[in-house]
Amino acid sequence: MSGSYGRGLLHLAAAVDQVGVFDAERYVELVRLAESGGLDFVTLDGRFGWAESDPLTVLSRLAPATRRIGLVPLAPAPQAAAVRLDEVSGGRAGWWSEAPGPVEECPVRVTDATEEAARRPAARYADVALVRAASSAQAAVVRDELRSHAREFGREPEELRVLVSLMVDLGDGERAAEPGHGGGGPRQTVQGPLYRGGPVDLAELIASWHAEGATDGFHLVPAEPRRDLERLVNGTVALLQHRGLFRTFYPGSTLREHLGLARRADQLAAP
After folding, report:
1. Domain that holds residue 245
2. I need a surface site. Which of 103, 126, 170, 184 has the fewest CB within 10 A?
């Protein structure tokens, strides 16, 4: 697995959505746990819990409780609101939008590029493209396509980080492993690819897909947030750190620094 370094720095992120949970301290606990593992960023989807507030507002409330980890809400937020989150968090904000477009100044732009129709816009405007893939071969095809489109638009392919978005259930490690995957997954489900197994096999999957050049990293969505995020950080991430495949500390203070992206003005005109 030492070959991963030749593929660039491994990036890891996690969702902290908790269905029906409205206690801010429960979110603070999860975000701090993710930060203790050195994850690049966490995401919060407004479709889960927090019916009385949007995820951007929630993460703005949580920003003072953390120091380094990136904060990325899924929201059709206006540019000014996203910039305010970036300011209050000290440059740690992202903006997950389903329709990335040209903006003059914006935090890190994240979008789901799984569907073919979303790939050209993602390659043109996004900083991070999430891809739901059930195999390393599938992920590699999409990553290559995104990078090819980025070149067409005059971008350096390395300006775009492509992360596999994978649901993880670390509470059941009894299923037999499948060749090349481990832990009985990932399996395609109606909600997307699902890995079910133990933290060790998940570390093997992450390391091997990254070493193969299939992805720049992973966005992991815990099936049981409190249980699985703890096992992810203290099990999977700790193993990757021990093998020298993932950071043990944050070298910078902003999300762009975590992702290895320079802060740049958007010089790409709308199509």
Report:
1. 2-259
2. 103
